[in-house]
Specification:
single chain; 391 residues; alpha+beta; eight-stranded mixed beta sheet; two-stranded antiparallel ribbon; 12 helices; 10 strands; binds flavin-adenine dinucleotide
Length: 391
């Protein structure tokens, strides 16, 4: 459990905490006021520290160019970077591991190994105007054409497109024996026909944008297809499962920081001649927050250990849905209470609770909204029984 982290992971946690406190947290307000960007020169310092800490592509096996951390180590790191607002924690990269492992030699040399080494940047384009929760409703097509595919469609919310040099695009095969099957493709952003339609503004202030991107008659060689025709959904589900666990870990870090900051404020803020922390209404908010955080932490750590132990992936699928659902909703409750405890200060953008209150909302939506997680959990329960899912 948390107190029993192996010594090496406890040491890693402390090193990452120091990095976060020295290099990221002091720049949150600057980022909030400057489109999510760091002050001049700071991005280079951050990159160097990430490199020195071995956190670049921390989820990718070392033989594929990454940091090769265990799931438990990744959960520990993710909780630490989850303490930071404005997406500054995204300096720790986690490219799609299943794709890196399935990639051909050509694809490894061209995209996945350079991405793991930090020389290239990927983004993952699945969602469309008419297909979010229901991934199977995508209408982007890939039609085979003389050793190439021609891809047509429009992708929404393509996170980090403004930093990326290639996309992983999910499409349905048009024509041929696998008509309608899902497939993934590497598409360089410079390929003719890849066009930004528009860059909407979102609730958070991140340097990573989420544009709508059109692919109009985009021709890519057959060698850009990842795995076989029909394997697209499998890679995406693998990515979702991993991300759900790491979202849960990051939510734990965010909640922990919020509880610490709100507790400190409640002890120093005098109202009606007493510290806020002496009022039962405030104490109960802090107590509920801490209790829920502990429950979420236990879920995350148990689940990370289960991944490291190679437990049944079908059960892990249901458990990742539970961890993501619980931790994201927990963190949103904690942020709401923290804003309340800070009072008017909690509504100021310079306040950590205000920023997290906006930023954590997306964790109940992306990588499967809460309703979708509940649906997965119920389906798993009815299929496997409660004991199998809760150990
Ligand atoms: C900031 C941001 C970044 C993103 N980044 C990416 C990215 O990089 N790549 C990418 O491909 N996508 C990305 N997404 C898309 C994201 O994964 C989707 O928004 C999400 O999966 C939900 O899909 P949707 O928005 O189409 O909602 P919809 O599917 O339209 O659902 C709307 C609401 O209805 C609920 N709902 C849906 N079905 C049911 C049901 N059966 N029963 C009950 N309720 C239901 C949902 O839970 C949701 O609350 C991003 C989104 C955002 C906002």
């Amino acid at each position: 459990m948390f107190d029993a982290l192996p010594q090496d992971l406890r040491a890693l946690q402390m090193r990452v905490r120091a990095f976060v406190e020295e290099e990221l947290i002091p720049h949150e307000v600057f980022a909030e006021m400057n489109g999510g960007n760091l002050p001049p020169g700071q991005a280079e310092r951050v990159r160097a520290r990430v490199e020195a800490l071995g956190l670049r592509a921390m989820n990718i096996p070392s033989e594929l160019g990454g940091g090769g951390l265990s799931y438990l180590a990744q959960a520990v790191v993710s909780a630490e970077i989850g303490r930071v607002t404005n997406g500054l924690g995204w300096c720790v990269t986690t490219p799609a591991r299943g794709i890196a492992e399935a990639a051909s030699e050509f694809q490894r040399a061209t995209w996945t190994v350079p991405t793991a080494r930090g020389e290239r940047v990927e983004c993952y384009a699945i969602t469309e105007e008419g297909a979010g929760s229901d991934v199977d409703a995508i209408r982007t097509t890939a039609r085979a054409d003389g050793g190439h595919y021609v891809i047509d469609g429009e992708k929404w919310h393509v996170t980090s497109f403004n930093h990326a040099d290639h996309m992983i695009v999910q499409a349905k095969i048009a024509g041929g024996p696998n008509e309608g099957a899902h497939a993934l493709f590497f598409v360089d952003v410079e390929t003719p026909g890849v066009e930004v339609v528009r860059v909407p503004a979102y609730s958070h202030t991140y340097a990573h944008h989420h544009p709508i991107v059109a692919l109009r008659n985009v021709r890519v060689p057959e060698a850009n297809r990842i795995g076989a025709e029909g394997e697209g959904l499998t890679f995406t589900q693998d990515w979702f499962r991993y991300e759900r666990l790491m979202i849960a870990a990051r939510c734990c870090g965010a909640a922990e920081r919020l509880i610490e900051e709100a507790s400190a404020f409640a002890q120093s803020r005098i109202v009606f001649a007493s510290p806020l922390a002496e009022y039962q209404a405030v104490r109960f908010m802090l107590a509920d927050s801490l209790t829920e955080l502990w429950a979420a932490k236990l879920m995350v750590h148990r689940l990370a250990e289960a991944h490291d132990a190679g437990e049944d992936v079908k059960v892990l699928h249901g458990q990742c849905a539970m961890a993501k659902l619980y931790a994201s909703e927990m963190a949103n409750r904690v942020a709401d209470r923290a804003v309340q405890i800070f009072g008017g200060r909690g509504y100021m953008r310079e306040n950590v609770a205000e920023r997290f209150f906006r930023e954590l909302r997306i964790d109940r939506i992306w990588e499967g909204a809460s309703e979708i997680q509940r649906d997965i959990i119920a389906a798993q329960l009815l299929k496997r029984g409660a004991a199998r899912l809760t150990g």
